[in-house]
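Action item from last week, closing it out:
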Amino acid sequence: MKIGMVQFAPDFGAVNENIERVIRLIGNRDAQIWVLPELFATGYQFVDRSEAEALAKNTSKLMIQRLAKFARERNCLIAGGFPELDGSKLYNSAFLVGADGLMATYRKVHLFDREKEIFSPGNMGFPVVEAGGVRLGMMVCFDWYFPESARTLAKGGAQIILHPSNLVLPHCPDSMPVRCLENRVFAITANRVGFEKRTEEQLTYIGKSQIVSPQGEI
């Protein structure tokens, strides 16, 4: 199985443009699974919950339709992160999209820093889905910090962990080889680059996306 990830710097709020940029970056490259960063279409640094909610309303349908069309054309699966509005709750979620549309959703359990002011903790646990002949699980960014996240997915039968991320701490990528070695799974961490300064704090994203084997090899 060939797997790819997209590492880029989204423009905050430019949902359609960010989706099309991802598709252009993939170009003619061939993979059965593609992993995109956390909140890849909207950007990450929301000023407040109302801003995140407004973007969530305008993102999900457009994103799923466009990526499903691409998945049909290329016979692939695509995972990435998006703000998911469900009733009065807003989640920092990951999606898995195939030719027929949305196949699975995961809602981030472990919220990082200011995310707790904007999102609700995930309420779905760590589901595993069979797709493309393999068993796939998803985590989002800061979930890496908690060994139980990857362990729960492995115990649920996951062979590959799809890990959309917006990593800012320099030691973050060092942990995924450990998680893979502990649980004998593959993992794909797709991180973004660039920076955002929409509040008093500037966030600089470290890139360093990686695919890791069950032997802990990058």
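Closing note: The CA atoms of residues 89 and 204 lie 28 Å apart.
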